Amino acid sequence: MKIRTFITTVLATLALGATAIAANVVSATMIPDGTYTAKVIKVVDAKHVTVTMQNGLETTLAAGRPTVDFSKLHANDSMKFSLANGEVLVYLDLSSH
Predict the structure, then answer these.
(1) Region for 10 from its dihedrals, namely left if φ exceeds 0, alpha if ψ lies in -120 to 50, beta otherwise
(2) How far apart are CA 32 and CA 35, in angstroms?
(3) How far apart are CA 71 and CA 62, in angstroms?
(4) H helix or E strand, kind and range, residue 96
(5) Domain 25-93, what architecture?
(6) Do 77 and 94 form a contact (C-beta atoms < 8 A)?
């Protein structure tokens, strides 16, 4: 009986940990329009980039214009961008390559 209680406790702890991790990921559409600074986690493709915002939230940003191209960014780069309706209208790579 003690083993079953232990296993249940371990599984509950793992489930809570996964929930806490998932809570830091947000949809870009939930972020208010504005200008932000973020750190690049990875470039998904030329039109999508995953970033960590300054407040610790993680999101995947989409290009809002045909001229926005994330292919020149690299992991760990800092970027400043303008967000409108969850899409990046313009960005600036703050890292020197």
Answers:
(1) alpha
(2) 9
(3) 12
(4) none
(5) Beta Barrel (2.40)
(6) yes
Contacts of 67-71 with CB under 8 Å at 24 or more apart are 70/43, 70/44, 70/45, 70/46, 71/43, 71/45, 71/46
> DSSP letter at 64?
S
Distance spanning both ends of the chain, measured CA to CA: 59
At 28, list the tokens.
């870009």
Q: How many CB atoms are closer than 10 A to CB 64? A: 19
Strands 78-84 and 58-63: unpaired
- For 53-82, write each residue's pLDDT tens digit: 999 999 999 999 999 999 999 999 999 999
For residue 45, the SS3 value is: strand
pTM: 0.74
Tokens of 85: 């309706």
| Range 12-28 average pLDDT | 61
